Amino acid sequence: MEQKKQIPQVPLARFLKHSLAILNNPLPFHKDNFERLGDTFRLNISFTESVLFSRDAGLLQYVLQKNQRNYSKSNIQTEDLAKYVGKGLLTAEGEHWQKQRKLIQPAFHKKQLILLLDNIKAAITSEILKIETSVDFDVFPIMNDLAFQTVAKSLFSSAIEEDEIKKIQYITEAAQKMLVKELRQPYLGWWFKASGKIEKHLALTREARVILKKLISERKQSGERFDDLLDMLLDARYEDGKPMEEEQLVDELLILFTAGHETTSNALTFAAQLIAKHPEVQEKIINEIDAFTTQDLMQSLKESPYTQAVVEESMRLYPPAYFIDRVNIEDEYFAGMSFPKGSSLLFSIYEIHRDPTFWEDSLQFKPERFIGVPKNQYSSHYFPFGAGPRMCIGNNFAMYEMVIAIQTLVSNFKIMHKTSAIEITPLITLKPKNAILQFEER
Ligand code: HEM
């Protein structure tokens, strides 16, 4: 029988000693513990609570794929986030999740996404036109608007007004910021409630729901078809032939806005910073675009393996979803380690993506490493979109969007970096900080 392994522990005193630094950026603290203690350790965060941190890619695959039935998501998504965006794909569990995933999955199939490409391209182009040349600026707000507009126009086509987009963007971002505060300062929970801050944000999300309901009802009454995501979601039928209830549809819309925009804007900002530091990569992207044999967007995406590799390599170094968390439902035993039921597991995608045993020159930006390599050669240690049944439903959508965005940027501008280091803010997602770049017309 396999020998039982003791999981190394980080004592509470050590956690408290580093708590300020952890609040600012927890990644160096995690790295230090991994280096000292190995790929899985237990961090004691109070006298009664602990979290299992792991950068063991085998354990991650086991949890997300092989034995996924024994795992649920943590309360962060299923309760803390759900109170703002409702119970939809990202935040639901069990049979409800399964039913929703089955219903919504077809809308994200590649053949359906073809119908959205023109909307995606138009949203990107109109945002990129706003870029000012020859001035230093933080590129994140541009990428953020670009990603939000792309989701909005893919969902509603031209049937959504600019002020409605702005309002929904303001509300979803405000709710996310509030959630970050609640998670980072749990000891102020009583104050957030007593001061009415949480209620204020709940009221805002109710406002967003009113706008979304109005858009749904206008679409239903108009009888007009746009072949956008809203049409797909309205057409979708459960096994019993019934459509989604309106409240459920609104939850899913809010979730698509939330899940689909911040991750993509982070990834695009990091990618822009990396290519700014590597002008030779920009040249190769231009060469790829110049060699297109077609104007057709889907065909040109197929002719873009290099730009795709640039995006993949950016997300290897800077994965927007830099942690994936789960809780085991029953006691678990893996490679000699045992986890009593109810253990919180936190997997560091950031560490797995930078592990030198998997990646040669692991800290260097080398898009070529993804070219001509079959997916199954790296899928055991590359998880930008997660893995298993709860893998990102928008992964193809996001890849198409990011490849088109990078190509549109590079074909219009030379991108130059203005700061030497790429700075990060690890919050719920891995966010860029001070992403100052300069653009010159080509
Ligand atoms: C670079 C962009 C993106 C990244 C890195 C990303 C990453 C992820 C990851 C890691 C998960 C799994 C989380 C877990 O297992 O706990 C996830 C789930 C999800 N993502 Fe994405 N995502 C991106 C873009 C998008 C877009 C564009 C959409 C929609 C328009 C989207 C919608 C969703 C939804 C609905 C889920 C929940 C799926 C489920 O549980 O069934 N994501 N995403």
Which descriptors would you attach to this protein?
442 residues; alpha+beta; six-stranded mixed beta sheet; 19 helices; globular; binds protoporphyrin IX containing FE
Concise synopsis of the structure shown:
This protein is of the alpha+beta class and 442 residues long. Helices cover 53% and strands 12% of the residues. Strand 7 (332-334) and strand 8 (337-339) form a beta hairpin.
Overall pLDDT metric: 95
Overall spatial form: globular
Helix content: 40-55%
Low-pLDDT parts are none
**Helix/strand-derived class?**
alpha+beta
Total number of strands: 13
Biggest sheet statistics: 6 strands, mixed
Strand % is 5-15%
Ends distance:
65 Å
Bound heterogens, unique: protoporphyrin IX containing FE
What's the alpha carbon Rg, rounded to whole Å?
A: 22 Å
Side by side, the strands of the main sheet go: 1-2-3-9-6-4
The number of helical runs is 19
Write the layout of secondary structure elements.
Layout: E1 9-10, H1 12-17, H2 19-24, H3 27-37, E2 40-44, E3 50-54, H4 57-66, E4 71-72, H5 75-85, H6 94-104, H7 110-113, H8 117-128, E5 136-138, H9 140-156, H10 162-184, H11 189-194, H12 197-222, H13 229-235, H14 246-277, H15 279-290, H16 297-302, H17 305-317, E6 323-328, E7 332-334, E8 337-339, E9 344-348, H18 349-353, H19 395-412, E10 413-417, E11 423-426, E12 430-433, E13 436-441
Helix pairs in contact: 5-10, 8-9, 8-19, 9-14, 10-12, 12-14, 14-17, 14-19
The chain binds protoporphyrin IX containing FE.
